[in-house]
Amino acid sequence: MFRSKKIQTPLGEMLAIKSEKGLCMLEFFDGKSTEKQLKEIENLGEILEKDDEILNRLETELNNYFKGNLKEFTIPLDLIGTDFQKKVWNELIKIPFGETRSYKDQSIAVGDLLAIRAVANANGKNKIAIVVPCHRVIGSDGSLTGYAGGKKRKQFLLELESKQLNLF
Predict the structure, then answer these.
(1) Whole-angstrom Cα distance, residue 140 to residue 100?
(2) How far apart are CA 147 and CA 107, in angstroms?
(3) pLDDT of 167 strictly over 70
(4) What is the pLDDT of residues 28-57, one digit of tens each?
(5) Residue 21 per-residue DSSP state
(6) Of residues 25, 62, 134, 157, which has the active-site annotation?
(7) What are phi and psi for residue 7, nearest 5 degrees?
């Protein structure tokens, strides 16, 4: 069984879903892959919109993140995907607040320089926006490429983190 909560953010309303293990989805309602990702989770079990301590804590942490008072999330995660996707997503979590990596850097971090496209594809399937920070991955030329929430949101998140970095 899964629990869900709608969370308001400065970038729009998000849907958070958690399993018994932890947060397994956090996506913008209007994101281009949200519906598909929601169906993947619905296939695993019933989703109930009920009050939940972890989802309430996530809402508090997101509010603090957007106010510039939080660099690291403490919410337990339940990464639902293939072994390769989980490996890629775990590398995303290691990218420090306020920093970026290229897809090439990330493919090297997962141990395969030639896996740039596979890494980019796995990033695109990340179901936990912001907390698993795929927005921190950019093109080798510094361009803002591929973000399911849209390039404007990606730019906002990167600017928010770069401005806040100086405060910590």
Answers:
(1) 10
(2) 17
(3) no
(4) 988 677 888 888 898 899 999 988 999 999
(5) S
(6) 134
(7) -125, 125
- Euclidean distance between the first and the last CA atom of the chain, given in angstroms as a whole number: 38
Per-residue pLDDT of 104-122, as tens digits, reads 999 999 998 888 999 999 9
Radius of gyration of the chain (CA): 15
CB atoms within 10 A of CB 51: 8
DSSP E strand boundaries for the chain: 2-9, 12-18, 23-28, 47-48, 101-102, 137-138
pTM higher than 0.85: yes
DSSP letter for 96, please: P
Is 134 considered catalytic here? yes
Q: Which fold has domain 2-67?
A: Double Stranded RNA Binding Domain (3.30.160)
Question: d(Cα 163, Cα 122) in Å, to the nearest integer?
Answer: 28
Structural domain boundaries in the chain:
2-67, 83-165
Tokens of 79: 């990464």
Selection from 56, 44, 62, 40 nearest residue 2 by Cα: 44
User: Which fold does the domain 83-165 belong to in CATH?
Assistant: Arc Repressor Mutant, subunit A (1.10.10)
> Which two structure tokens, joined as six digits, stand for 98?
């306020």
